[in-house]
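Most newcomers find our protein records easier to grasp once they have seen one. Nothing more is needed to start thinking about how sequence determines fold. Here is such a record, shown just as it appears in the course material:
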Amino acid sequence: MSRRRLDAVAQRRGQQLASCLKQARYASGRSAEAVASSAGISVETVRSIEKGRTPTPEFFTVAALATELGLSLDELYASVRRSTVPSEHRGGPR
């Protein structure tokens, strides 16, 4: 069974998620290998996410990476949403 092709918004979300995780890892000064080992996932999974080859990683994979990198899921979600949703659709005061 093949996966459906992602639309442009989903692709941008994946790219932003990759960017956020990669930046957090660089800021932590840790290698992909160290983060992967601590998170209990393969280094290839970390690299695949960071390079945007896995734009929709599993929730528990993202949660494990966020925990290892000291990111809250709320902050990670907000960062990805901010960059991929037009301002008129974000809610809040207008």
